[in-house]
Design goal:
Blueprint: E1 2-5, E2 9-12, E3 38-43, H1 52-60, E4 68-75, E5 78-85, H2 88-98, H3 112-123, E6 132-136, H4 142-149, E7 154-159, H5 162-174, E8 197-201, E9 213-219, H6 228-238, E10 239-250, H7 255-267, E11 272-284, E12 287-298, E13 308-309
Bound molecules: S-adenosylmethionine.
């Protein structure tokens, strides 16, 4: 756990008695951090920075101050600047200290699925241009930020973790999105309802009643068996009648979850058609990750279910 002491000092406290087995720790710091696409990995030095990305964002992280770092992620010709916790283990420790054993720190690093979808969005801006976009389990908001840069009219990044949304909003701002909402406690909208990008707390296990969107985005959210049904129920509820769901998911890691999800989409009360599906390779940290990119929309009339494979 890190405590704030002055601005930059970090006090390491003894580890708590609850020990999380290494096997269920998601990854150690740096396993994804030095992806080939990343040009620069730099620890923020808030005392020498007056900008939102460093000083203010750290101040807003609340009592469990997490040291942040800035990571530059090159996606095609677009550079994203990600503001993220410097130490993933510190995020895990924070949850242990709070007794939130159901939480995971996966939000604090970029994942290849999000990079793959961001690349698609930036290459084909018409997918989101002028549209209302919502991302679930947004983490650092890579796909959302790309949607905003590609000309989406409105982007709502959602996650259950408020710290993730703060980092994602900071990342949007640092990446050049001009109109980003402020963070106000747990309400991300009241202060700047007209911002192009805003954040909303949304736990996909909770009922959703709210706005509908033209494009609903979900990257790497099917990693737990128990998440498939809640995510499968939530996504159509977020979608307008003529909208589409864009799903990015690692090809092999939890393939059975994705297959269950696809089946579920075809059998829900208002069934969805898997309209397009393609596999892409994304290289991060010297490794190649195979990612499935899928597009769903609501079925019309008696349309039969089918997948059109896309050329890479
Ligand atoms: C593997 S990370 C993916 C983050 C981001 N989409 C990406 O691909 O870089 C999974 C994300 O889902 C979020 N998440 C996990 N359980 C959730 C829940 N019940 N409701 C909402 N978000 C959740 C996590 O906080 C995390 O941001």
């Amino acid at each position: 756990m890190l405590l704030r002491h002055g601005f930059l000092s970090r006090i390491a406290l003894p580890r708590p008695s609850i020990v999380v087995p290494k096997a269920i720790r998601p990854y150690s710091v740096g396993t994804l951090g030095a992806a080939r696409a990343i040009n620069e990995l730099q620890i923020c030095n808030p005392s020498s920075r007056e900008d939102f990305n460093g000083r203010m964002l750290q101040e807003k992280l609340g009592t469990e101050l997490l040291a942040l770092q800035e990571q530059r992620l090159q996606i095609g010709s677009q550079e994203l600047v990600l503001i993220e916790p410097a130490d993933v283990d510190a995020v895990m420790d924070m949850y242990i200290n709070r007794g939130q054993m159901d939480r995971d720190p996966y939000w604090s690093r970029p994942w290849p699925s999000a990079v793959a979808l961001a690349k698609l969005i930036l290459q084909q801006p018409s997918i989101v241009s002028g549209r209302r976009v919502c991302e679930v389990g947004a983490g650092l908001g890579i796909a959302s930020i790309s949607a905003a840069l590609a000309g989406a009219k409105e982007v709502v990044m959602t996650d259950r973790e408020p710290l993730a949304l703060q980092c994602a909003l900071g990342s949007a701002s640092a990446s050049g999105v001009a109109s980003v909402a402020n963070f106000q406690g747990t309400s991300f909208t009241k202060d700047s309802p007209r911002a192009q990008v805003r954040g909303e707390l949304l736990d996909w296990t909770q009922p959703y009643v709210g706005q509908k969107f033209d494009v609903v985005v979900a990257c790497d959210v099917l990693y737990e068996d128990f998440s498939v049904e809640p995510v499968g129920e939530l996504l159509p509820q977020l979608l307008s009648s003529s909208g589409c769901v864009l799903l990015a998911d690692p090809s092999e890691r939890t393939r059975h979850n994705r297959e269950y999800f696809v089946d579920m989409m075809q059998t829900i009360r208002r069934p969805m058609l898997l309209e397009e599906c393609k596999r892409v390779d994304e290289e991060m940290d010297g490794k190649v990750y195979s990612i499935e990119l899928m597009r769903f929309r609501f079925k019309e009339g008696n349309e039969s279910v089918g997948v059109k494979s896309l050329r890479r």
